[in-house]
Amino acid sequence: MTKILMVCLGNICRSPLAHGILEAKLPGDRFEIDSAGTGDYHIGKLPDHRSIATAKQNDIDISNQRCRQFSVSDFDTYDIIYVMDHSNYENVITLARDADDSAKVKLILEDAGFDENLEVPDPYWGDAKDFDKVYTLLDNACDKIAAKLLE
Prior knowledge:
alpha/beta
């Protein structure tokens, strides 16, 4: 079983969406998807209501997810760690114990083959349109990642 972790800052906007989207695209008997945040702001809480609503509009239910903080033990649990932006990347890489840990960490848009602006923008301070844009971006990225993983 391949285990994949999605990581953003607070684990309430981007990573829960990426978690739900990729989970919907991959068979559960071969892949396990989870998400976490680099910060400890929202531990135990639901994803942002706007992320839940955006996912629901696209027939994905993320209301069962709970926010948690990324920990060093995640390097032992997960095969691939997708981060949403360069700040998340630096926060996770700082916790890496060795080259094997570091090799697991990837910018999600870069791994999906996007050529420009390799960061998923944080929609937290925006409105529903910003969440829709992030959803579309992550959906496109997860299409490419799922296709690659299923090869």
